[in-house]
Amino acid sequence: MKLNIALLAGDGIGPEVIDQAVKVSNAIAKKFGHDITWTPALTGAAAIDAAGEPYPDETHDICMKADAVLFGAIGHPKYDNDPSAKVRPEQGLLKMRKKLGLFANVRPTFTFPSLIDNSPLKRERIEGTDLVFLRELTGGIYFGEKGRRDDGETAYDNCIYTREEVKRLAKKGFELAMTRSKKLCCVDKANVLETSRLWRETVQAMEKDYPEVKVSYEFVDAVAMRLVQWPNSYDVLITENLFGDILTDEASVISGSMGLMPSASVGEHTSLYEPIHGSYPQATGLDIANPLATVLSAAMMFEDAFGLNEEAKAIRAVVDKSLAEGIVTEDLSGKNKAYKTSEVGDWLASNI
Ligand code: IPM
Ligand code: MN
């Protein structure tokens, strides 16, 4: 099969972890007889430096023409502490999500048997956790009108959702639930927010189309608490943009390392696959960052974007093997030898 993939390495450790995912994907292509064309393109601070813009039109064209986008990370500290900066790397990510119509962010959370004691949470709480967040990605407070008034003394960010936006995300949630344990949790704050009441009303109206799915409605504050207390009680969770941003970072604690969690963003045009972690600027260029979240994002890409399930399985199997054999970066190595990012990538590729 011919696979045409846009490669957006981005900032910080992005290029280093992306390199390992490319090595692994190329090894998979060789083993299974595929032909991958990688087309690199600029995003984030790297794109601001080169083109004055964090998501240049040229990058968008490359993404639109590709079958899938593999993405590293975005963000640079020189913008974080400068509230007056007019362009920011993160704007590139938001623009990319909006222009590619990536309205559903799929973030699975699972545990690795060999790493269970890496989590700060007790083994008996988290063992067997296997849940998926579907985070709405192109609406809500991220994209509502924002601004200042009263000479800059007052600031506002509007949270806006249309019924259609809720419906298309919820539809994905119901469909995903049907392929799993048929349990769906709608996370909202319907006791306070009007947008949440629209979410709840919309999802409730859809229940009749999926009679087998058992839907629960829970407030976001309660979910934040129960997620680390009883993660096993959840399966598929749907939620709006900001709640999903916060809860998925929280959920990554269950797996023991943020460096392990992959994600997919899907919607109207080309789908995008990326690790949930950020650009980890302190580690840039040190060859120490954990590449597994990006490698596992490539596995999601093989599966979702190309329907290549055996290839995805082979990637997950080699990742499990590296964890079991301790071929891991410093975030996971404990008292044992820490491998470099590139060494982990080489090991994975040569064990495929
Ligand atoms: C994420 C990130 C982004 C977000 C930032 C970098 C804009 O935290 O992908 O979760 O808030 O969506
Ligand atoms: Mn986030």
Structure in words:
The chain is of the alpha/beta class and 352 residues long. The chain has 2 domains: 212 residues, 3-Layer(aba) Sandwich (Isopropylmalate Dehydrogenase), CATH 3.40.718.10; 128 residues, Isopropylmalate Dehydrogenase, CATH 3.40.718. Helix content is 44%, strand content 20%. The protein contains 14 helices and 12 strands. The strands form 2 sheets. A 10-stranded mixed β-sheet has the order 2-1-3-12-11-4-5-10-8-9, with helices on both faces. Strand 8, helix 8 and strand 9 form a beta-alpha-beta unit. Helix 7 packs across helix 8. The longest helix is centred in the N-terminal third of the chain and has 19 residues. The mean pLDDT is 95. The chain binds 3-isopropylmalic acid (IPM) and manganese (II) ion. 3-isopropylmalic acid (IPM) binds next to helix 5.
- Strands ordered across the widest β-sheet: 2-1-3-12-11-4-5-10-8-9
> What is the typical, i.e. mean, pLDDT?
95
Beta-strand proportion: 15-25%
Q: Would you state the CATH class of the largest domain?
A: Alpha Beta
Content-based structural category = alpha/beta
CATH architect. name of the largest domain:
3-Layer(aba) Sandwich
What ligands can be seen in this structure? 3-isopropylmalic acid, manganese (II) ion
Low-confidence stretches: none
* CATH-assigned fold name of the largest domain: Isopropylmalate Dehydrogenase
User: Ends: how far apart?
Assistant: 18 Å
Radius of gyration: 20 Å
> In one word, what is the shape?
globular
Helix segment count? 14
Taken together, the total number of domains comes to: 2
The total strand number stands at 12
> What percent of residues adopt helix (DSSP H or I)?
40-55%
What does the largest sheet look like? 10 strands, mixed
According to CATH, the homologous superfamily of the largest domain is Isopropylmalate Dehydrogenase
Order of helices and strands: EHEHHEHHEHEEEHEHEHEHEEHHHH
